[in-house]
Each structure stands twice: as structure tokens, then as C-alpha cells.
Amino acid sequence: MARITVLGGTGYAGGNIVREAASRGHEVTSISRNAPQEKVSGVTYVTGDVLDPGVVDQAVAGADVVVEALSPRGALEGTIGSVVQKLSAAVQAAGARLGVVGGAGSLLVAPGGPAVAAADDFPDAFKGEAAEMAAVLEDLRASDEALDWFYVSPAGDFGPWAAGEHTGTFRLGGDVLLVDETGSSTISGADFAQAFVDEIEQPAHRRQRFTVAY
């Protein structure tokens, strides 16, 4: 059993990770600005703002794995990079592991690029978020080798509008967007969470990004 803290544990990705980790018997703490309307049994819920340095320290204290599942929106727009840098330093000092939920925008459409977010049909509304999360990934790759991290990018179509089902069957890839035979790139929240928690239980991507899709 691992002690897992999820920052953003009431959001879409974070909520699915919390639910999956708790179902496997892990000791899970969710930290978010607001309490959830429905709580997962056995999960400890804490309210706090990650922009408060004390909340970062609280997230890392006693944790084996800290999950950053925050979105660079609203008050967090333009701040995710600095938040992850502070979190990384605390995680490294504690000897814990850091897992980051990234976006699909920084994935490549083919080996060698370009990035998904560079495509003409990529929504302008999400380009800022994609750039921020791409910068987070680059910072992690340039970090001290002592920092144990992994970064998971979902398929292109991932969110509450495409929640899908828990199939238990999916593919893992590297830096290139995974698509099916029709050109679609999808993953349900539950299957994304399964892949994420699998990595916590059986580390296979130390200091690497990987992607999950059908």
C-alpha cells in the first residue's frame, strides 16, 4: 500500500485517480480548493490553495507519491510551472515520487514533431494550457537526476464530455499521439486512472512521459 496525495483530487483526472487508487487499497489524500459533492469512501479530503506554500509542504509530508493533477486555468493560469518547481523540490527532498497529469497538446503528431498543439485545428482556447504543460515537461526533463518523476499525457479526446467506461484495455505510448484505425484518439477517465495507478504500483517510466489511449 502506498500513501498517495493528489493535488487537484476533485477534478476530472484527479478524481478518477483518487477513486482508482482508493479502490486498490492505497492510503489516499485529496487536496483541492473545494470539497467534492460526493466523497470516495476511505479518502481523506483536505481543502487548500496550492499557491499557499504551506499546502505544498502538507501535500508532500508523509507521502510516497504526490500527484499533480491541476489545470492551468483561472487563478492557476500562468503559475503551474512555478508550482511544479516548488513541488518537485519538496518531493525530491522527501525522497518521494512525483506523478504529473499532462495534456495531449505537447504530444507529437509523428516522430520528430510537430506537436499536437501546433496543428491548425487545435483550439485556440487551449493553446495557453498546452504551452504551460509542455514547459512543465521540459523542466522535469532538465531536473536533477535524483528527482523521481513520471508524466502522463492522455489521448486527444479526454474529459468529462467523453467520460466513457472502465474497459481495462488500452495502449501505452511515448511522445507520439496514439490514434486508432479511424484516426481517433480517446481514453476514458477510468482507464486513464488505471494506467496512472499501474505506474505507481509498478514503476516502468522513471523520469519519462508516456501516453494512454485506445
How would you describe the overall organization of this protein?
This protein has one domain (3-213): Rossmann fold (3-Layer(aba) Sandwich). It has helices at residues 12-23, 53-60, 80-94, 127-141, 189-201; strands spanning 3-7, 27-32, 44-47, 65-68, 97-101, 148-153, 171-173, 208-213. 29% of the residues lie in helices and 18% in strands. The protein has an eight-stranded mixed β-sheet, with helices on both faces. With 214 residues, the chain is an alpha/beta fold.
Key descriptive features of the protein:
5 helices, Rossmann fold, globular, single chain, alpha/beta, 214 residues
Strand and helix order: EHEEHEHEHEEHE
The CATH homologous superfamily is named NAD(P)-binding Rossmann-like Domain
Mean pLDDT: 96
Provide a count of the helices.
5
How many β strands by DSSP?
8
The number of domains is: 1
Rg (C-alpha, Å): 16 Å
The N- to C-terminal Cα distance equals 28 Å
Biggest beta-sheet profile = 8 strands, mixed
General form:
globular
Could you list the spans in which at least 5 consecutive residues all have pLDDT below 50? Answer: none
- Helix fraction by DSSP (H/I, runs of at least 4): 25-40%
As laid out across the biggest beta sheet, the strand order is 3-2-1-4-5-6-8-7
